[in-house]
Phosphoglycolate phosphatase-like HAD superfamily hydrolase
Amino acid sequence: MTTKKVIMFDLDGTLSDPKDGILRSVDYALNQMGIQQEGEELLSFIGPPLQDSFKDHFSFTENEVHTAIKLLPRTLSSAWGMKTRFIQTWSLCLTR
């Protein structure tokens, strides 16, 4: 039997700053649904589940939440690659 050592990280917020990617994706979904918001006003979307944020901040129905969430993958995957900033000191975590 082989033993493997594995290290797992919660990437969002631990090694990377997902702020720009998440804000741009949520902004895109809202714009597609006819809602205009400033990016900084959406900061509360970072952290909690996006479904909860759409309900809490915009009183979305379940159908509206579903629509907004369906709009996210298209933008979130492209925004993630281009807009995620990796935390500069992450390598210190790996060497300790």
Observations:
- The first strand starts at residue 16 and ends at 17.
- The two ends are 28 Å apart (CA to CA).
- The chain has a mean pLDDT of 78.
